[in-house]
Amino acid sequence: MASVLVVLVLAAASLVKKAKASPTGPPGPDGRQCVQLEVPVTVNTKAIHWLQKKVDSTVDAVDWVDDMTTWTSPNTTSRILGQITVNETFKISGQLCVPAKGSRSDILQLATHGVGFDKRYWDVEIKSSQYSYVDAALAEGYSIFTYDRIGTGSSSKPDAYDVVSTGVQVEVLRQLTTLARSGKLVSSSKKVGGASNLSNYKPAKIVQVGHSLGSVIIIGLLSDDGASSDGAILTGFLYNSQIGSASVGPWGFEFAKENDPKKFGDRRSGYIVQATKSNTQLVFLKKGTFEPALLDYAWQIRQPGSVGEFISLATVLGHPAPAFKGPVQFFIGEKDYGFCGGDCNNTYDVTALKKLYPASSALSVHLQPGTGHGLTLSTNATEGYKVIFDFLHESKL
């Protein structure tokens, strides 16, 4: 009976979300105007070619985890075999939402999700008034663009070893940022649904918002091209003394296509996904700060990651962003298991953080009380959003 109720709740939430999308053009009943897009993004860049094991089965996936975590295994640097050229045009599935009335609608929040999800991470469909970051941003008057990173959701799913890597994801974000700032994000894309009156939307400012790997990707963009962005909210990530404890082990990875052939039948070699709902809880949630229905939801919308993303994650970290002048906020769950080993208290140095962003107009660190890694899925999500918005307002954004 419980499983039937969960299915009914998810189905009802899906119907509510369809109504929110306002497919005929006028604002929906909550004032949101959204357009769903297929954005062609061409990337021409150098990517690292890595030495790593192939993953074509769940047996391989477990062996890959073993190889990545055994203390005598080669370190990241020694696994670099050289460089390859990535010159591809990817289809990026995105959604642009603009508030019907909003004093900050000319400020675009460009949101990049992390591993384990797609853009739905930002727009939770259960109790959306409490959990949806998209709804919260629109209610605060901001416009927001969410998208599926390559390898996830409805976006392109290229080679999982060298192409779906952190560096290439940085280039995708750079191109999306350029398109948005030029006002050509909608006009250069294929409209697949939603409002018809947003073709000329051009933001005056862009704030990058990330979660986990999405925050790491933003860090890479800011260090390469600090002038591209007017502000950055880095959730689910924090430079700290326990960051080295992060491991792929707790994910319990399986080969995605084998884990769920129906859901992940389009994933090729090298795509891996958390094996069980318990793995999802361990990585993303903390007992006492999540509702069971939200764990069910997180499991239902889970997405595979690529082995290339994990091995390349560290390559963009630790580089300063001297040209970035906007405000930056590190926002992480107090009990984040992945990046702080379960407790972020007394693990970070604000002075060291400021050295990475020497020209930043403001820098802050916020530990969200009691929560784990999945901030939009935790019961105090709304309070967390207020912290983010207050920081932006204080920074004149």
From TrEMBL:
| Signal sequence interval, chain numbering | 1-21
Q: What is this protein called?
A: AB hydrolase-1 domain-containing protein
In terms of InterPro entries, this protein maps to: AB_hydrolase_1, AB_hydrolase_fold
Domain AB hydrolase-1 intervals: 113-378
Q: Does the keyword Protein biosynthesis apply?
A: no
Record flagged with keyword RNA-binding:
no
What Gene3D superfamilies does the database record attribute to this sequence? Answer: alpha/beta hydrolase
The taxonomic lineage of its organism, from the top, reads: Eukaryota, Fungi, Dikarya, Ascomycota, Pezizomycotina
Swiss-Prot/TrEMBL keywords: Signal
